[in-house]
Each structure stands twice: as C-alpha cells, then as structure tokens.
Design goal:
Layout (H helix, E strand, L loop, with lengths): L6 E11 L2 E10 L2 E14 L2 E11 L9 E2 L4 E2 L3 E10 L4
Antiparallel strand pairs: 1-2, 2-3, 3-4, 4-7, 5-6
Amino acid sequence: GRYPVIRFSSTEIRAVRPGVVQVTGVLELHGKSQTVTFPAEVSLQGGVFHGTGSLEFKQSAFGIHPYSALLGAVRNQDEVRLIFDIVAQPGR
C-alpha cells in the first residue's frame, strides 16, 4: 500500500537488428530507482506497434527483502523476471 506505483521511463532505445531493440531506462519500484537495460522485439503493422520482452532484476536492489518463512525453509528468490507485451495504436 505504501508503494502503489511501478514506473518505467526509457532514456535510450537503440536498434540491434531488424525487429530487435535494446532499451535502457529507469525502473522505479518500492520508492527506489535503478537504471536497467534489456532487449525487446518490436514490430509495426497497419499502424499498430507491438513490443514484447522481459527484464530481470533483484528485489534487493530496490530495498525489497524476498519473502521467507519457516526459518528459510520457504522463501522466494531475490531475482525477478518482469515480462511485458505492449500494443499501442494512434488515438482516434
């Protein structure tokens, strides 16, 4: 409840090869910001942009302690994979 927003702002998008870009930007999570870089597959067909990809980061980099219970017998990994699938088209 204290940190209801996750925000990403790109600072650079660079073509790697046809249909693939490298995205760099600032990921804001849990009240902290980190620069991240990840590949994304992109396409533009009929005026519709489609982008897919994923990025991995450690929760601890954002001040989050992974869940642990039963003296560590049950716990989450520190690494998280965020998967995205974005579709955008011009407004009407």
